[in-house]
């Protein structure tokens, strides 16, 4: 039997950060936990502190083997990208301090791996995550995105594909 590995998926956000943990290495990935770190009521550095501490608690409690995180996507608003980058930074720092390896995936990589098309909508991602993990109900949007990130990492590892090579332009 393959070695079990625990994957913490993160969908970073400056107001809501989704997280999802799966265990893989058996026939199908197994759902462990998911949720949303909500920091809307805080401002500035307090938000970042709360994200950092919450991710640290998840890392301590669930002891994941790897953290899979969505890369920053800049579309129109550079200010939003900077704020999101700060949230990602404290998440990456929390994982690095705990010695947890970090894998990064673009939104397109995640959606194409889980749904089959890189520009899938939130509802499609929720539906596929629910089905892939045999959940009784669809997870909340941010938690579904985080679980999709974890499932994407699991898929790449099960196929023996290095995701960093894919981001350089190669295809599978």
Report on this structure.
With 172 residues, this protein is α/β, with parallel strands linked by helices. The protein has a single domain, classed as Nucleotidyltransferase, domain 5. It has 6 helices and 5 strands. The chain has a 5-stranded mixed β-sheet. A hairpin with a 4-residue loop joins strand 1 and strand 2. Helix 3 crosses helix 5. The longest helix is centred in the middle third of the chain and has 20 residues. The radius of gyration is 15 Å and the shape is globular.
Itemize the secondary structure elements and their pairings.
Layout: E1 5-11, E2 16-24, E3 30-38, H1 44-62, E4 66-70, H2 78-97, E5 102-105, H3 107-114, H4 122-132, H5 141-158, H6 163-166
Parallel strand pairs: 1-4, 4-5
Antiparallel strand pairs: 1-2, 2-3
Helix pairs in contact: 1-2, 3-5, 4-5
Rounded to an integer, what's the Rg over CA atoms? Answer: 15 Å
Summed up, the helix count is 6
Number of domains: 1
Strand order of the largest sheet: 3-2-1-4-5
**Low-pLDDT residue spans:** none
> Could you give me the name of the CATH homologous superfamily?
Ribonuclease H-like superfamily/Ribonuclease H
Note the beta-strand portion. Answer: 15-25%
Q: Distance between termini? A: 25 Å
Please tell me what the overall shape is: globular
Number of strands: 5
Binned, the helix content reads 40-55%
CATH class: Alpha Beta
Order of SSEs: EEEHEHEHHHH
What is the CATH topology classification name? Nucleotidyltransferase, domain 5
Query: If classified by CATH, what would the architecture be?
Result: 2-Layer Sandwich
Mean pLDDT: 89
Task: Describe the largest sheet.
Answer: 5 strands, mixed
Please state the structural category.
alpha/beta
């Amino acid at each position: 039997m393959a070695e079990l590995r625990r994957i913490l998926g993160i969908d970073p956000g400056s107001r809501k950060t989704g997280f999802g943990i799966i265990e893989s290495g058996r026939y199908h990935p197994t759902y462990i936990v998911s949720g949303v770190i909500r920091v809307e009521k805080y401002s500035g550095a307090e938000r970042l502190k709360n994200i950092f501490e919450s991710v640290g608690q998840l890392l301590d409690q669930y002891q994941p083997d790897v953290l899979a995180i969505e890369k920053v996507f800049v579309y129109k608003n550079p200010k939003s990208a900077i704020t999101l980058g700060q949230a990602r930074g404290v998440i990456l720092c929390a994982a690095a301090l705990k010695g947890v390896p970090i894998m990064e995936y673009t939104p397109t990589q995640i959606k194409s791996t889980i749904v089959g098309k890189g520009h899938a909508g939130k509802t499609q991602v929720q539906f596929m995550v629910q089905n892939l993990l045999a959940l009784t109900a669809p997870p909340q949007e941010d938690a579904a995105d985080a679980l999709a990130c974890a499932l994407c990492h699991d898929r790449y590892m099960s196929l023996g594909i290095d995701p960093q090579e894919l981001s350089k332009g190669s295809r599978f």
